[in-house]
Design brief:
The complex is a heterodimer of chains A (about 230) and B (about 450). By secondary structure, chain A is an alpha/beta fold. Chain A contains six helices and eleven strands. Chain B has a six-stranded antiparallel beta barrel. A five-stranded mixed beta sheet of chain B has the order 2-3-1-4-5. The chains are: A alpha/beta (about 230), B alpha+beta (about 450).
Chain lengths: ~230, ~450
């Protein structure tokens, strides 16, 4: 056995949890859904790399899960809501939610957070960066070892590209007994992962957030549901 | 010595009260305070007490017309007061750590107990301060109540009075002026300001503070002054952060004349907080940099928010977004396994998009069958037919109405599944009949 191999074995014995420096940039931030993490090339979003996820049904839900899983693991995640579309009623305030005043501020915020080294996962939702901006974001992610995910149609410079495809025929419905339309209960989406020399897909079932307060009309006003007019 | 107590201020030409005399002593003592019962206190912290007392007595005689003023010097106020009022010599100095012994020999009446308490003390045979100080607190509390305990503390030379408030340090400032030339180049101005910022930030850091507001003033060649106020997102004494804020403003500001001086002052400061973290937390090591990154983002106009939800029937009015400080990153939220279950959540459009909707009747309601957004740009829609999107299902309506006291509203909400699999929320204003797409489940 060479002296190099001996030294490596000795280090592995003495420091079993240490990662070789070369692997550090390849460690990943898992989504937290085993079926999905299996189809990702490194078991999650790669740290220090830019990933893009095509906005479609299920994409934001799965990214929210990834953020929550990151926080549950003791790391930090940030969600930059460039278009201010996140509804407070269904937001679980564990990742840091940032609302920038304009798209340019959203890009600046993303760059700051990715470069800081304090956030394992940074999600930019609702901004469409240009190529030069993508270069800056990519560089910031590398400097801060953050997994940066763009929820955007832009895929340039992304080492990992994900998309979701709804499987409409496999949606689950709750049958209405009074002749109304059936109510949707859950959806199935196919998640497709593309990277250099890599393509994999998996089907995931997602439940639907429901507005539990829909009966809470203001007092003094009748609930007109079902009323014949 | 901490306190100098001056008493016996009477004299044929003496001022009418201590309040009139006190200002005349400010040439000798930095801080004086007059009491209505004819006492004047001088703050002797950091000063040689006896020379100060001598000069104060001299001033009282010369400028105040007092015949025989007395001074008591002690580390506690009660000892100084008794020494001044009851001492035989003109200046009585109570030795440090000897205050209790000094008081012990005096009658308990020097502590000015109220008459009821004085009778009780007399009845139990307590004559001197030493007699009272010798008792333990529980025994005093049982027999004489809370007033007795307060007097017992005084007898032990434990005086809680704060005669002089802590000195308020002036907030740091720095300025630079030049008369031989004028500046118009922003880069040169930044060079000068950078030096001032370094001075002010260092002064702030020395006191453990950070500025929550500071002002940069430009003295112009025409004699005018232009001020620019800054409000960092948190208490900040980082020269780098200040310069970033200042640089952002200098890029936009337009001054009417050349600059002949700059002045940087702190308007408000707060103690720089150091947050205790958990060393077992994986994010602990990076919390500082995360907080600093968030602070920079806030300085650029973004906000960190958390929702506060009410039970309002309208989703668009249910949430109030609360702005959070950058120190939020130190918190470690508790996440359970059920929280990480993926679920489609409704995303509300910042502005609802007007829609053209084709409907069918169902149970008295006009239920959407297909729709096209009002801002259709001529491209084909999901189904390739002039922007129209076919709906596979439209469940509802959820009828919400209210606002009878301000702005009345009545909406019918339909959860619709489009032919491409997307799930959208369509809304019909029951009062005007207009349709809108207000959000999408993503």
């Amino acid at each position: 056995m060479s002296r190099f191999a001996t030294a490596r074995d000795l280090l592995a014995t003495r420091f079993p949890e240490a990662l070789p420096a070369a692997q550090r940039s390849w460690s990943s931030v898992p989504i937290g859904i085993a079926a999905l993490d299996r189809i990702l090339p490194s078991g999650g979003f790669q740290r220090g790399r830019l990933s893009s996820w095509m906005p479609a049904i299920g994409s934001a839900a799965l990214l929210r899960t990834a953020c929550l899983h990151t926080v549950a693991n003791g790391e930090r995640a940030a969600w930059i809501d460039a278009r201010h579309t996140v509804a407070g009623a269904c937001w679980r305030p564990a990742p840091v939610l940032i609302r920038p005043p304009n798209p340019m501020a959203a890009l600046r915020a993303t760059e700051e957070l990715a470069r800081s080294g304090g956030f394992a996962l940074v999600v930019l939702d609702g901004a469409e960066p240009e190529t030069t901006e993508l270069v800056r974001l990519s560089r910031a992610a590398r400097e801060g070892s953050a997994a940066l995910v763009l929820l955007s149609r832009v895929t340039a410079l992304a080492t990992l590209r994900l998309s979701t495809r709804p499987l409409l025929g496999e949606y689950a419905w709750r049958r209405s007994l009074v002749g109304d339309a059936d109510e949707i209960r859950s959806v199935k989406v196919q998640v497709e992962v593309r990277a250099s020399g890599w393509f994999a897909h998996e089907t995931i079932s997602l439940s639907l957030w429901r507005d539990d307060l829909r009966l809470s009309v203001e007092t003094g006003r009748p609930d007109r549901r079902g009323e014949r007019r | 010595m901490t306190f100098v107590c001056l008493s016996r201020l009477a004299g044929p030409t003496a001022a009418e009260n201590a309040a009139e005399l006190a200002p005349r002593l400010l040439s000798a003592a930095p801080r004086v305070r007059a009491e209505a019962r004819g006492l004047i206190w001088a703050d002797a912290r950091g000063l040689p007490a006896r020379p100060l007392a001598v000069s104060l007595l001299g001033l009282l005689r010369e400028r105040g017309g007092c015949l025989e003023p007395h001074a008591g010097l002690a580390r506690t106020a009660i000892a100084a007061e008794v020494a001044s009022l009851f001492g035989r010599e003109t200046i009585v100095e109570v030795p440090i750590a000897g205050e209790r012994e000094f008081l012990a020999a005096h009658d308990v009446s020097v502590l000015r107990p109220d008459p009821r308490l004085a009778r009780l003390l007399e009845g139990t045979g307590i004559e001197h301060c030493g007699d009272l100080a010798r008792l333990d607190q529980a025994a005093v509390e049982v027999r004489f109540g809370l007033d007795g305990v307060a007097l017992w503390r005084l007898a032990r030379a434990d005086d809680p009075r704060r005669l002089f408030d802590p000195t308020i340090r002036p907030l740091p400032e720095a300025s630079l002026e030049w008369s031989d030339y004028v500046l118009r180049d922003p880069e040169r101005l930044l060079f000068a300001i950078n030096g001032l910022a370094g001075t002010v930030c260092s002064a702030l850091r020395e006191t453990g503070q950070g500025a929550t507001a500071f002002t940069l003033a430009f003295a112009l060649a025409g004699g005018a002054t232009v001020e620019q106020a800054f409000r960092p997102s948190r208490a900040n004494a980082s020269q780098r952060t200040w310069m970033r804020l200042i640089r952002d403003v200098l890029e936009r500001i337009r001054l009417p004349d050349a600059v002949v001086g700059v002045f940087l002052r702190v308007d408000a400061a707060a103690r720089s907080e150091i947050v205790q973290g958990d060393i077992l937390d994986r994010g602990f090591g990076t919390a500082q940099v995360a907080e600093e990154a968030l602070a920079r983002i806030l300085d650029q106009g973004s906000v960190v928010v958390t929702p506060e939800n009410s039970r309002h029937s309208l989703l668009t009015r249910r949430t109030r977004w609360l702005e959070r400080p950058p120190a939020l990153v130190w918190a470690r939220p508790q996440i359970g396994p059920e929280d990480t279950e993926p679920a489609l959540a409704l995303h509300l459009w910042p502005e609802p998009e007007a829609a053209e909707v084709a409907t069918v009747g169902r149970r008295g309601f006009a239920v959407p069958e297909r729709y096209r957004k009002g801002g259709w740009d001529g491209r084909d829609g999901q189904d390739g037919r002039d922007g129209w999107c076919e709906l596979v299902s439209a469940s509802g309506p959820d009828c919400v109405s209210g606002g009878q006291w301000d702005e009345a509203y009545a909406f019918e909400l339909y959860c619709c599944v489009r032919g491409d699999g997307a799930i959208v929320l369509l809304s019909r204003d029951a009062r005007s009949g207009e349709w809108q797409e207000i959000g999408e489940w993503r």
